[in-house]
Request: fold
Amino acid sequence: MILHGYWRSSAAWRVRIVLALKGLTADQVPHHLRDGGQRAPGYLALNPQGLVPALVTDDGQVLTQSLAICEYLEEIAPEPSILPGDAAMRARIRAAALVVAADIHPIQNLKILRRLRDLGQDDQAWARQVIEDGFDALEALLADTPGPFAFGAAPTLADVCLVPQMANTRRFGCDLRWPRLQAIEAECLKLDAFRLTAAEHQPDAE
Ligand SMILES: N[C@@H](CCC(=O)N[C@@H](CS)C(=O)NCC(=O)O)C(=O)O
Reply:
């Protein structure tokens, strides 16, 4: 498999975590987002959205959207499961993951912040507000779930989305006011699958 990504992409980090949790490997091809690598014709041919990650499977299929890729990896390598439990539990895990992947991250990613800057707005304040509002809700959503991970004794898709987004909270200087989320992050970072896949350990890290 080939993973097209970027060291500081939190969406690509989700995929790196799931690959590592499942003991799968992929060759990494970096695309420098600040230099516009995601809009190079060669990459747009793979992902017309001009976003990383994209995963090329062993039989040459191109998969996009990090959550779709994570679920693909779950299907080809079911153990350890990142979507365990019954239908209601899996729905709750997906909901927590989507708080990050659908409702926080897309409105604070690079192209949105650049557009805000172009419009003369304070993109950093925007990002902080979006993340803090979303994490306030996620902290409440996870208040009654069993630990030490977001949904019990092992990491799930919710943790996979949470940890990279926590890195973004620091990057944007958010007010770290989420004891439950921070405890989950600390637990995840005890695992190599989370720690060694972090931005600073990637081959293209600056
Ligand atoms: N929903 C997409 C989001 C992908 C995404 O926004 N990736 C960011 C990096 S984390 C990106 O490629 N940004 C480039 C840009 O905004 O131009 C996914 O989960 O894969």
